[in-house]
Specification:
The protein has 312 residues and is mostly helical. Helices cover 74% and strands 1% of the residues. A two-stranded antiparallel ribbon has the order 1-2.
Length: 312
């Protein structure tokens, strides 16, 4: 196999495309974690968003803007329901989140038949995808611009959002309060911070990110809806959040890693490897990264204990 520049730039472009949904979802997990809430329902939020984006796209005659809004609002609604279950009703975050993920898969399958009278896959020539931007430096540096071909407006927006979340959490008063709630909710409450209110709106905000991720899946590289379109990306995003320690910039690097793994799997499949092997690469990388992260966390904890003992 000859690794020409066009081949390398295609891998980089694919990595950036694969990375964007994971980045958006991992940012959602990060802000929830900073607020002291465990959100495992990102898979379901993406699924619902991807579906309703296609529904509105189809019935509005191909309106991309309305489809994006529908995807975001549907995801925010699911996130708000989860917030009520966890914060108000004190339900288990794991049980409530997994219930929403399972319900979302079954609900979209049923509604696909209701809206489109089909099962498994819906695709129509009237559907419009997200607009793809040509880099402004394409004429001056055509070879460099190849790395960014095929990226949509939301792909670029995902990186802008990562920077904005970084500024929001570490440079604003509200961000400071959210982080304080995650560190010690009782201390924050004693200072007059409405803990439950902040947690509710933080989870609802996370629905915006998951909504954009879902829109990318159904209207980004392809414009269609297929059952299980998320393919576990919500769980991969959770691992990216753990690797990045809920820090927006760390989360971005971890998302790039998983995007590269997915891109690698796609290109190895084109090279002739069996799809069963290449399709397992992102999930194997997720398990491996989780193991490495756990070992690193345990060693850091043991180191802190030894330092505390030596000081005494």
């Amino acid at each position: 196999m000859i690794f020409e520049w066009s081949y390398i730039s295609a891998i980089i472009s694919s990595t950036l495309r694969m990375c964007s949904p994971i980045l958006l979802c991992s940012l959602a997990a990060a802000i929830c974690s900073k607020a002291g809430v465990f959100n495992i329902a990102m898979e379901g939020c993406m699924m619902v968003s991807a579906f309703f984006a296609i529904v509105v796209n189809y019935y509005s005659g191909g309106s991309v803007l309305l489809a994006i809004l529908a995807g975001i609002l549907s995801s925010m609604l699911i996130s708000a329901v989860l917030a009520v279950l966890i914060i108000r009703l004190k339900a288990s975050p794991v049980v409530a989140g997994m219930a929403i993920n399972t319900m979302s898969g079954g609900l979209t399958t049923y509604l696909m038949y209701v809206f489109f009278h089909t099962k498994g896959l819906f695709q129509n020539p009237t559907l419009n995808g997200l607009s793809k931007l040509t880099p402004f430096f394409a004429s001056a540096f055509p070879e460099l611009a190849q790395m960014f071909y095929g990226l949509t407006t939301v792909d670029y927006l995902s990186w802008i959002i990562a920077i904005l979340v970084q500024i929001f959490l570490y440079r604003t008063v509200i961000g400071y309060r959210i982080r304080a709630i995650g560190i010690n909710p009782e201390a924050a409450r004693s200072l007059g911070t409405p803990v439950e209110k902040y947690q509710f709106w933080t989870m609802t905000l996370s629905g915006i990110f998951c909504g954009l991720a879902g829109v990318l899946l159904s209207m980004g590289s392809v414009t269609l809806f297929i059952q299980n379109i998320t393919s576990g990306k919500g769980y991969i995003a959770m691992t990216a959040n753990n690797l990045g320690k809920s820090h927006p910039l760390g989360v971005a690097v971890a998302s790039l890693f998983f995007g590269a793994c997915q891109s690698l799997g796609s290109f190895l499949q084109q090279a002739g490897l069996k799809g069963q092997i290449t399709g397992s690469i992102p999930y194997a990388a997720t398990v491996l990264a989780s193991v490495v992260s756990s070992i690193r966390y345990r060693r850091q904890k043991e180191k802190k204990i030894r330092e505390a003992i030596s000081e005494n």
